[in-house]
Fold:
Amino acid sequence: MNNYLKINEGFITNSKMNSFKFCPTLFDLKYNQKIVPESRSDALIFGSAFDQFIQDDEKIMNEKYNVVKIRFDPKKKIKKIGSTMSEIEQEIREIEKIKKSKKGDIKKIETRNLKLQKLKEEKIMYQKNTGKEQLTETQADKLVNCLNEFHRQPLFDFDSKQTQISVEINYKGHKLKGTMDEFYPDRQLISDIKTAASIEGLDRKWIDGYTALEKYKNQLSFYQFLVEIKFDILCGGRLQVVTKEDPARSSFYMADKMSLLDNRQNILNTLENMMSTIELGIYSSSDNREKCLKCPAYGVCDYAKQKEYILI
Ligand code: SF4
Structure:
């Protein structure tokens, strides 16, 4: 189980609500049946690296991330060798045995030695990457650019002591949770930091009918709701956005208390719908074929299993 699933097991979160809104069946396949993995897109990996990078750049980079030329997945077959990591390890052991026994002609032993060398390089790369998130060199360069822009932008302020605040509440028999990038109770302010492809892209509508900016605002409204229930503080929200362009750009957005409150009813409607669906255990499908085509469950989901025609 990945880290996001582990720490949010049993909770309704903003991200789970987004999956549910996209399609209730997708939510079921991802979070109940766990058949569809939580996506680890480049954008998500980059965003979470940035969130951590702004707290403690040097330490985080060394402890949690490896900068690599090409990302390495130990479960996948390694292309140039055609084996998985455990198959490679088995092969290394066998070649070592043959080498020790010194049986076979010299040419064969030399060829095996070359292969052994290659396999060992792959093994070292695997060990280096185990347990750490991998960033490509391009992503690492962009991270540094984004960080510089984040610190340059005169409107942004950031207090590393107020970061990654987790708020949990019980609501009508369900557990809800939100983890805010920043929370300032004295200023009645919640804040989220985002990385985006471009400023213009924030206003583009996605397949689910929302722009990125609308989704970010919904997220702030959800956090506002959690904080009000938990601490009895009604907060406004802000968004500090940095882009991955070259050079990096930034934009600052504020949503006052009332504007976040205006969104509250939408949040509550989605929650009610989601909670009653979870209680009933009946998850409907999407009626939008474009969504199915773009859905991570396409090919797994019973409603959209067939990906190609059958020749008759
Ligand atoms: S493939 Fe279609 S019906 Fe199935 S989960 Fe995805 S959006 Fe829903």
